[in-house]
Structure formats: structure tokens, C-alpha cells
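Ops channel
N.P.: pipeline sanity check, posting one input/output pair.
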């Protein structure tokens, strides 16, 4: 699908850990666009049914806007209004790699695209298409939460299973809130097995005969 417009399109990415205010910032930008009388469409991954269900983008503090749930970039392509000025997509990390050419095409056609998503998974590794989206964006804002252990800036998602850190080989996607995740800094972030492997690796550094 080709989008053509004389408008100046761009891609904006709001990235960061859980509880850092990503959805809240996306909602703020969407509301400002609506006040400016722009035609706005909001999409979100159908995997996220927390807080207000699948038909809204909702922040942890209760703010929300109506949204269309999707499970692929192709679904977004089929539902995009050719007259839309602004397209917002929440939980972009759950979408397939096709979201990158999709939003690039939209921006080239004059659409302002706003994406929010978690840029690293619970292991602290790049999550889904977020690295590519951040690379092609004109504007990237990386938000931080507060580490629940030490109070420093949090840049990691700590997954908890029955109150204990999830092992490295746990499934990448597991939707949850405060019962399953905590925001932590690099120092306080724990990933069993990976941490143990690194300890073995570094214990051998400098050894030998």
C-alpha cells in the first residue's frame, strides 16, 4: 500500500522499561494531536489486555485512549485510514519485523507515526523490532523507571516467577504487571543461568600458567 501526502511525516519512538511512562507519553501525544484537530488512529498489540482490556491503550496511572487491537503489521496496513495524519502504535515490541517497512512507508507518505514499546526483554536483550524502529526514527525518547531495589534509574525489566527471578531460558513473551515484573537498574537486575555463566567466564580471566 502506498501513502502519498504533501505533509511532513516522521517516526517517533518512545522506548524504555516497564513502569517508565511509555504508554502515558504516547497517550499525551495522541491527545495533543486530537486537540490540534489531526485525524488520529491508535493501534496496540492484542497481547496486552492489562488494565482497560484490548480496546484501549492505558497507562499504569489509569489514563487511556481508544485503540484497535492487532496481532500483525499486516492487520495495521489493512486498517490504516488513508486520510490519517497520525498513527500511534503501543507495545510495538510484540509486532513482527514488517512493522519497520510499514511505518517507514507511512512516514514517507507524510504521516506522523508514534510508537511506544519496551526496547529490551527480561534478559536485558533487544526486544523484537524495537532496535530497527529506533534506528529509522527521527526522534527517540528513552524513558527510565526507578529501581525498586536501590532507587537508581531503572533500565531493565526484572521478571519474577513466584517471587523469584526468571531464568534466562524462560519464554521471551509473558504479559504481566507488578505481580510479574519489577523495574531494576543494571546492577540489581538478575537473570539466573546467564549470571552464573558470566561468573564462570570472568573467574577464568587472568588465569593460566
Amino acid at each position: 500500500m502506498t501513502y502519498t501526502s504533501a505533509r511532513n511525516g516522521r517516526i517517533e519512538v518512545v522506548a524504555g522499561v516497564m513502569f517508565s511512562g511509555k504508554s502515558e507519553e504516547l497517550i499525551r501525544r495522541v491527545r495533543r494531536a486530537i486537540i490540534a484537530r489531526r485525524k488520529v488512529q491508535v493501534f496496540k498489540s492484542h497481547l496486552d489486555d492489562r488494565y482497560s482490556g484490548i480496546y484501549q491503550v492505558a497507562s499504569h496511572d489509569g489514563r487511556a485512549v481508544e485503540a484497535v487491537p492487532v496481532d500483525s503489521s499486516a492487520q495495521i496496513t489493512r486498517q490504516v485510514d488513508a486520510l490519517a495524519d497520525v498513527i500511534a502504535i503501543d507495545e510495538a515490541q510484540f509486532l513482527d519485523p514488517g512493522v519497520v517497512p510499514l511505518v517507514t512507508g507511512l512516514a514517507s507518505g507524510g504521516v506522523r507515526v508514534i510508537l511506544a514499546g519496551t526496547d529490551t526483554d527480561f534478559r536485558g536483550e533487544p526486544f523484537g523490532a524495537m532496535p530497527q524502529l529506533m534506528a529509522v526514527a527521527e526522534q527517540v525518547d528513552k524513558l527510565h523507571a526507578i529501581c525498586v531495589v536501590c532507587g537508581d534509574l531503572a533500565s531493565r525489566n526484572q521478571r519474577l516467577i513466584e517471587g523469584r527471578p526468571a531464568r534466562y531460558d524462560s519464554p521471551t513473551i509473558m504479559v504481566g504487571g507488578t505481580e510479574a515484573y519489577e523495574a531494576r537498574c543494571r546492577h540489581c537486575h538478575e537473570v539466573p543461568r546467564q549470571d552464573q555463566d558470566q561468573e564462570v567466564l570472568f573467574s577464568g580471566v587472568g588465569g593460566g600458567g
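N.P.: looks fine end to end. The first strand starts at residue 10 and ends at 16.
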